[in-house]
Write a structure and sequence with these properties.
Blueprint (H helix, E strand, L loop, with lengths): L1 H22 L4 H8 L19 H29 L14
Length: about 100
Amino acid sequence: MIVSRLAFPLNLGLRQFSRRVAENPSNWKILQRHMSGVYFRSGAIKPKPEEMPFGLFAIFCAVIPGLFVGATISKNVANFLEENDLFVPADDDDDED
């Protein structure tokens, strides 16, 4: 259902774009400029870009400190809210039943 809701505006936009290109051929340059990163002027496909050798390591170096910083900030905010009686968790005494 979500895909069908997204497909209609995309299809409509594609139809409008193709009409504009048919009306004015200079609009075709916009599409060619967008695709220039993939193909050479001759039409040959450009080679695959170089990959970063430690890509996964770099991701871990960014994600793990981010998680620790986020956890520290949320812990400090929770302590601040509890100290100032802005939010105090309810004590559930369900264990005594």
